[in-house]
Amino acid sequence: MALQFDIVTLFPDFFTSPLQSSLLGKALAKGIARVNLTNPRDFTTDKHHSVDDVPYGGGAGMLLKPEPLFAAVESLPVLPKREIILVTPQGRRLDQALLDELTTYDQLVIICGHYEGVDDRVRQHLVTREISLGDFVLTCGEIPALTLLNGVVRLLPGTVGKEASLKAESFQLPLLDYPQYTRPAVFRGWEVPEVLRSGNHQKIAAWRREQQVLRTRERRPDLWEIWESRLEGID
Question: Model's pTM, two decimal places?
């Protein structure tokens, strides 16, 4: 059964081009995953179709009201293994392990926040998981929702032509990816490392792992510590 994405968004047009482009568009065309866009404005009951209001207690900005969001989510079919996700800076930071986990679900409902956020009753009583891209704030929840969608779909069987490439890339291990090169062998005097042109696959593999270790130790000390602890566990 194809993984079902239900995206609750005030701006469905935001997804038009990305859902038709590149590997994501091909995966959806092949039925590897399905995407349904639901606009909470369609579930408002007042004549102005209001989806936001001022916060109790005062403060800057507007909040998304609970009624349209609850109604939008409750209108969706419920598949056996479902997660209702709010993309928010307050959630768990998205990483590769979380993307891997989300591929095991039948249905991912993603609520895109806007303005100053959502009424907290949505978080407390509707949402089952909160996810963040990192410690920063964006203008809308559609950007992290699309990131989440893309990151999950590319892991589904059939999306990426050579699935072995998924196993070697950054973050599948707690190591960054190794440097990669293509032709020409010399460009503006900069040469591709000789080992990569040697044809010796054992040496190439050893060089690549060495480069992963060096890059990770230099650029991501946090990941390096995890890698070191794993090596100690093996010893």
Answer: 0.86
